[in-house]
Amino acid sequence: MGIRIMVGETFITIAEDLELAGLIWQPEIGDEVAYREQKNMVSILVDPQGLTPPELRTIFVWLPTVEQIVLQVEARQAILFHAGLELSSSTVQYKTVIQASGTKIETHGENLRSALAVGLRTLLLKDAQETLH
Fold it and tell me: Rounded distance, CA 98 to CA 75, Å?
């Protein structure tokens, strides 16, 4: 069984989708975040100013790094089978292939981070769907 998704969305949108798919951010100093009210304001979490993790999640959208995304894939006992640049006569894009419990998830994106994040989003949604059945 294979799932193939083409990406044409901003990374902030993908990060919001990860959250909706069930990825829970555990805030740490150094995380890249975007303000929910002004999504074009991206910054690094330096001082939580005494805010609790739920409060931080209310104010910010977490923008996970490539490494953080890979760790989330591994935590779900999936394998990052392929991640790299795909060149053809008509397109230049990044491709990832994640294998999890008999399913191959193939995604494409304008950069590696987006392609991996869409793969993780698909994996989260697949897991949620299997839990319901």
Answer: 13
128 pLDDT tier (thresholds 50, 70, 90):
confident
Q: pLDDT for 71-124, tens place per residue?
A: 999 999 999 999 999 998 888 999 999 999 889 999 999 999 999 999 999 999
Strands 32-35 and 2-5: unpaired
Could you give the CA distance from residue 97 to residue 84 in angstroms, rounded to a whole number? 9
Q: Is the dihedral of CA 91, 106, 31, 42 positive or negative?
A: positive
Give the phi and the psi of residue 107 in degrees, each rounded to 5. Answer: -130, 155
